[in-house]
Amino acid sequence: MDSITYNYNGVHETLTRIYHYIFFSFLFSVCKSQTENSVYICRTMEHNGMRPQDIPILLKVLLKEGEPWQYRDLSVALDISLSEISHSLKRSSLAGLYQEDRKKVARQSLFKFLQHGLRYVFPVHPGALVTGVKTGHSHPYYKEKFISGQELVWPYEGGDTRGQSIKPLYSGVPAAAQKDEVLYKLLASIDILRIGQSREIAAATSELEKYIL
Fold first, then answer.
1. How far apart are CA 146 and CA 58, in angstroms?
2. What pTM value is reported for the model?
3. Which among 12, 37, 177, 190 is least buried, having the fewest CB atoms inside 10 angstroms?
4. Are 118 and 104 in contact (CB under 8 A)?
5. What is the pLDDT of residue 22?
C-alpha cells in the first residue's frame, strides 16, 4: 500500500508540473496582428506568471463593476499595496483575464480558469489546528448545505473558530473577507474548488457562476 501511495503521489506531482507548463505556455502566448502586411506574429510576452493574490484582486474589481474605483480603493479593501495592485492587474491583462482599457474583468475567462485550473495552479492541503476565520465548506453559507465534522479556517488572530488550517491565497484574505460578505463567500467558494469533494465543488461552482457570469 505504501508503494502504491508513493507512486500515486509521484504521478500526481508530475502531472501537476506538466499542467503548469502547458497552462502558462498557452495562457501567456499573445498573438498580435501586424496590419501593414497582414502577417500575424505570435510572441510570448514577458511575464512572471500569475500569483495567488491576483484572484482576490480580480474578484474585487468584478464586484465593483458599475461604480467608479481607483487602485487606492482596492488597496484599502484588500490590504495590498498600490504597486502590487498595479502589477497584478497588468499580469491579469496579459493573461487575458482583465481588460485594462475598460477596467473590466474578462468574466468567461476568469470563470473557466477558476473552474478548470485553480486547484492545479494554487493547490492547498489542510494543515495543523489553528484559530481563524471559517472557509471552504465551513463558511456559514455552505455549512447549511453540507455536514462535516472538520472545520476549515484561514489562520487569523482575530478569528473565533478552531479548525484545520487552510493557507489563504494571500495573507490579507481573512481581514479582507470580514470587510465584504460577498467577497468572503466567493473566496470560501474558491477554497472549495481547491480542496473540496465533488458535491461541494459542484455547489461552489454554481455559486461562483451566479456572480461571475
1. 28
2. 0.80
3. 37
4. no
5. 44
